[in-house]
């Protein structure tokens, strides 16, 4: 009886065709559900990163003028060195986030790009700066301060 109704719903199409479309619809719904879950997860990660950034900004408002001046000078030195290495605008942004301790995944999320793109930009930064990797890149800026 159910098969008869399915055949009637198919309006002349074979039962195999109707089942094929049902499977395609089911797979599409699964993919859609997965995309929605991933979208929500990314939004939660982004919200968390934005909250952490806001907390860091609030914390920096309470530092002493002496420390603030030193941070400003370090920031200027970093910008000048990035220009000396001829980093692109995107590479400069990625470089600053690397120096701040963000992971490649976090940087990709913040910048709205693929993690592979950030990994390639980081490699380009390391090559242009003549360092072996992330730790050497950070150490290049703080070595003399310590």
Characterization of the model:
By secondary structure, this protein is mainly alpha-helical. It has two domains: 1-62, no CATH class; 86-146, Arc Repressor Mutant, subunit A. The protein has seven helices and no strands. The radius of gyration is 26 Å and the shape is elongated. It starts with a helix and ends with a helix.
**Sheet having the most strands:** none
**N-to-C CA distance:** 82 Å
Strand content: under 5%
Class based on secondary structure composition and strand pairing: mainly alpha
* Record field, number of beta strands: 0
Overview features:
about 150 residues; mainly alpha; 2 domains; 7 helices; about 80% helix
Produce a short descriptive summary.
The protein has 146 residues and is mostly helical. It has seven helices and no strands. The chain has helices at 2-9, 15-60, 65-84, 89-99, 104-111, 115-129, 134-142.
Write the layout of secondary structure elements.
Layout lengths: L1 H8 L5 H46 L4 H20 L4 H11 L4 H8 L3 H15 L4 H9 L4
Helix pairs in contact: 4-6, 5-6
